[in-house]
Design a protein that fits this description.
- There is one protein chain.
- The relative contact order is 0.09.
- The radius of gyration is 31 Å and the shape is elongated.
- Helix 5 packs antiparallel against helix 16, helix 19 packs antiparallel against helix 20 and helix 23 runs antiparallel to helix 24.
- The longest helix is centred in the last third of the chain and has 36 residues.
- About 80% of the residues lie in helices and about 0% in strands.
- It has about 575 residues and is mainly α.
Length: about 575
């Protein structure tokens, strides 16, 4: 009989954890898709003040129901140089507050009893409602809503299964005696940390602890220590993400770990002081039992919230100290200081951001804007080289060309992955168009490379270069291509159709300038002011500039589908 109960309890627990984790993932992805635009803007404001950073971390985590996703996002921002370590620390503080919402939801779901319809049953029914909405909805926004409702309902289905497993365990006297014998606070914290690291979800560990307390398998104090341990275990996701990222990203994951460990150490010290000064009569358990009598689920959920809130209040003024400590733990090496990021790399995109697709989309846009900056710089460098036949800056040009090729080859892979993830309609359209945009910008680099090759041909042929009038025309072309670039980037970044229309007019002017350059070239050739070889290179330069303008216009065309 006992073996049957044990097997049933274990199976129910595994099923409950599985459903709970799937529900968390479903809710997280659909909430991200529903609030993608707001979510993007939210994290960009985190640098304004530390308190705002805490608030944004808490709100963002509460919205997407995943402190791990928030922390991984922050690591990506630090890796891309968008956030400083101090700014990242404040968002992580807030994420710890935001994650307590799950515990409060779980506690709410455990009200009711045999004589009433429990809140768990009511909320579980949302899974069916969400499934019907998803099945019959035609609009993607309605399907996202259905996904949110299904995830929310499944959260309580999983909770119900976990609660059932605890009831089964509660029938076994040996299990109750074994659990009751684990009174060592440090051991309980370690168990909580290890189990959380294994399932990679502090929400699961907190929920299991709540169901165990409610079933009477463990005391409230034991549940409190397991919950504190879950805070440390939740750092596992961030530590894994930080391992394959930059030095500052590693520092961010260590800040997360030190912050959570500091909170646990502080509360363990307070617990020890309470025990010694009151002869064991007062503990966190007795305090919260007195504050919320008769509702053990609320007692543990509220401790979790208060624990994280107080830790943030204490640690926020010590942020600079924490950042300095982490920099000493992970110092910058002399080799890294010398490298200065000369190798091709992403400035904003980070693989770990794919866990939060809407944020990844925002970073893709920043990366493309940066790619455009590199492309126009190479165009200007190519003109400098060909008009002066001075190759001093060729090394810089070649580094930019490698950067453009790197982004072209690697960003497309990221775009393909993003296209398969849940996003709103505009983001899906943007990702689809971006594959062509990246190719257009890479072609800008190719045409600039053609101009440098033309300069090399002039140099090798001992040609004197272009005449004064030809150089003046080249500068005139440069002015209009740069004007076109500025207008296109304004249109692209701000979805500004008027800026695009101005760019379209500028592009027409560039076509006329190209024609004029060709006509003037024939006149100079007849007058003998330029040689046929120089003239051929000049015509190629004009054509390459005109094609560069065409590719910039293609970049601007993508905004039409997004307005």
């Amino acid at each position: 009989m006992n073996s049957t109960i044990v097997i049933k309890a274990i199976l129910n627990l595994m099923a409950g954890i599985g459903v709970f984790l799937v529900a968390c993932t479903m809710m997280s992805k659909n909430l991200e898709a529903a609030g993608s635009n707001k979510l993007k803007g939210l994290f960009e404001k985190a640098s304004k003040s530390r308190l705002l950073g805490v608030g944004i971390g808490a709100l963002g985590t509460a919205a997407i129901q995943s402190s791990g996703a928030t922390t991984v996002m922050v690591i990506g921002f630090v890796n891309a140089g968008i956030m400083s370590l101090a700014q990242a620390a404040t968002v992580i503080y807030g994420a710890n507050i935001g994650t307590t919402i799950t515990g409060q939801i779980v506690a709410l779901g455990m009200f009711g009893g045999d004589n009433y319809i429990s809140t768990t049953v009511i909320f579980s029914a949302m899974a069916g409602v969400g499934a019907f909405v998803t099945l019959f909805a035609k609009k993607s926004s309605h399907k996202v809503l259905g996904g949110i409702l299904s995830g929310f309902g499944m959260l309580f289905v999983g909770l119900s299964m976990m609660s059932k497993s605890m009831e089964n365990f509660a029938q076994l006297e040996n299990v109750k005696l074994f659990l009751a014998s684990i009174n060592n606070a440090v051991l309980l914290v370690v168990i909580g940390a290890v189990l959380t690291a294994i399932v990679q979800s502090s929400s699961v560990m907190t929920s299991v602890a709540i169901t165990m307390v409610v079933a009477g398998l463990i005391s409230l104090n034991q549940g409190i220590y397991l919950t504190m341990g879950s805070n440390i275990g939740s750092c596992a996701v961030a530590l894994i993400a930080g391992l394959s990222s930059s030095r500052n990203a590693k520092r961010t994951s260590v800040i997360h770990l030190l912050f959570n460990v500091s909170g646990v150490v502080l509360f363990m010290a307070i617990s020890g002081i309470l025990f010694m000064t009151t002869a064991g009569n007062v503990s966190f358990g007795t305090i919260f039992e007195g504050m919320f009598p008769g509702v053990p689920q609320t007692q543990l959920a509220m401790f979790h919230t208060v624990f994280n809130l107080l830790t943030v209040v204490i640690m926020l003024p010590l942020t600079d100290v924490l950042v300095s400590l982490v920099k000493k733990i992970i110092p910058e090496t002399s080799e890294e200081a010398e490298e200065g990021g000369a190798e091709p790399h992403f400035y904003f995109v980070d693989e770990h951001m794919l866990k939060t697709p809407p944020i990844a989309v925002a970073m893709v846009k920043k990366e493309i804007v940066k790619m455009a900056e590199v492309a126009i710089e190479n165009y200007n460098l190519s003109l400098d080289i060909i008009t002066s036949l001075d190759f001093t800056h060729k090394e810089r040009f070649e580094a930019n060309e490698r950067q453009l090729n790197f982004v072209n080859q690697n960003l497309v892979k990221t775009l393909v992955k993003l296209s398969q993830m849940p996003l709103n309609e505009k983001d899906h359209q943007y990702i689809s168009d971006s594959i062509r945009t990246v190719s257009d910008l890479e072609r800008v680099g190719d045409y600039a490379e053609n101009i440098v090759e033309e300069a090399e041909a002039l140099k090798e042929g001992n040609q004197e270069g272009f005449s004064v009038s030809a150089k003046a025309e080249i500068e005139y072309m440069r002015e209009y291509v740069n004007r076109l670039y500025e207008q296109i980037m304004t249109a692209y970044k701000n979805l500004d159709i008027k800026a695009y229309e101005k760019a379209d007019e500028t592009e027409e002017m560039i076509d006329k300038i190209t024609e004029r350059m060709q006509q003037n070239h024939i006149i100079r050739l007849n007058e003998g002011t330029c040689t046929p070889v120089t003239g051929a290179q000049y015509l190629e330069l004009a054509n390459n500039s005109e094609r560069i303008a065409d590719h910039f216009i293609n970049v601007g065309k993508t905004i039409k589908a997004l307005i």
